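Sample pair:
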Amino acid sequence: MNKYEQALIGNSSKLDILTQSSGDIIKLATSIVEENNQLSVVMLLKKISEIVDNPKYKIEVKKIAHGLKASLVEYYGYSTIQSICKKTTEDTEDKRTLEELLEELNSLVGLDKVKSTVQDLIFFQKVQKMRQEKGLHLAKNTLHLAFTGNPGTGKTTVAKIIGQMLFEEHILPTNKFKVTTRKDFVSKYIGATAQQTHDVFMSALGGVLLIDEAYSLLPHGEQDHAQEAIDQLVMDITEHKGEILVIVAGYTNDMHEFIEKGNPGLKSRFPNWIEFPSYTCDDL
């Protein structure tokens, strides 16, 4: 590890401890050093800015935050930092306000209970963010969702709106939206599924990862490597808490089977379920 990497990791560790960030800051710095993760650069700068602007932190803490920013610039160079931030901005051109997004949600045909549940979830996340910024106690919280119901009931459309809402409220750092199925995760080569799953997960980091027909990841026989994908997803979700919204979707009964049988950790990571009813004759 060279001196620039040491400075970046060292300052991150200090700031993490002083702000009681539960390893979030050092995790971002490690991702930058070990994986050259450009999204982590943007997220770390955002974290530094939030600390510097937060009146609850003393001047000593803010000095460490400024020191971390300086070490990040020394590590990459100012022009590279600028290009990384510019690329992220270009990737997130949708500028709709929360009010416009709520209007779009409410304009969807039917889905009254879905709309109400989504609005409750968004406002809960807003309150959680406000409490975090003021250093108040946070309720146990996870972003991830399970969508259940028949095909063609609006699950993908609603998932996109939720992702954009969370981006607009600065709860997610980007409005990336990636739709995946079993073939994106399960490799035909032995031992490659976990890495392939991790790569797909990281490509959606900062935004929304929608896994359609998630129950298809349940293994079908001894030669099926799909269990590796489920186990890797649980690991990645745990490692990157608050940095991504993962939505698993599919038929109701099959989704319950997936959560029950896939991995013991799935149930706690997907506590929020939204049922999408089929359209009535009047809706159609």
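The mean pLDDT is 87.
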